[in-house]
Amino acid sequence: MPADPRAWASHPLDAVAATAVAGEVLSRYCWAIDDGAYDELHELFLPDARADYGAFRCRGDELADVMAGLHRHLRTTQHLLGSVHAAAEEVGGVRVRSHVRATLVGRREGAGSARVEVAASYRDLLCRAERGWRIAERTVDGRWIAGDRTILPWFGRAWRSAGAAGTSSTRGT
Q1: Which of 12, 51, 94, 112 has the least C-beta neighbours within 10 A?
Q2: Of 26-35, 107-116, 123-132, 163-172, where does mean pLDDT reach its minimum?
Q3: Distance CA 111, CA 133 (A)
Q4: What is the pLDDT of residues 142-155, one digit of tens each?
Q5: What InterPro entries is this protein classified in (predicted)?
Q6: Could you tell me if residue 99 is inside a domain?
């Protein structure tokens, strides 16, 4: 890597560095959602980022408010990230594919909290910005969903297909 920090903008990343960058940015996203720190999303997405979660689309500047609205009514969430594969592009960006498994727990009282589990894939484009790496594009591809979907106010708008054993495929988490 170049000794002069100004040279970083034009220096391509190798696969290991690209994967490390991707893991750090995407982990910060998962923690921001799970900690309810939605304002931190402004630091993770470019102001003009495009995000397609399947059930909804939004831009970087509105993403924090959208995520807060979707998750604030839940008791807790846990987003587990894995299978991060990143490849640096010639133009300085990093294309990333990863899996996420999210457990979302509702606030229902009594025996057995309402919860839903969602498995999805993220396809992201990361770009270097003045204050570090940011998500410029995000597409979420649903794999499966199981549990009490009524705790997800947006679920009725999500695309889904018939699945086995009462589960359905959907996009978004």
Answers
A1: 112
A2: 163-172
A3: 43
A4: 999 999 988 886 66
A5: NTF2-like_dom_sf, SnoaL-like
A6: yes
* Domain of residue 126, CATH code: 3.10.450.50
Model pTM greater than 0.85?
A: no
Residue 6 lies in a domain: no
Residue 22 lies in a domain: yes
The yes-or-no verdict on residue 13 having pLDDT over 80 is no
Distances (CA, A) of 166 to 54, 117, 146: 21, 13, 8
Mean pLDDT of 44-69: 91
138 falls within a domain = yes
CA distance 75 to 42: 23
Dmax of the chain from CA atoms?
59
* Per-residue confidence (pLDDT) for residue 172, from 0 to 100: 52
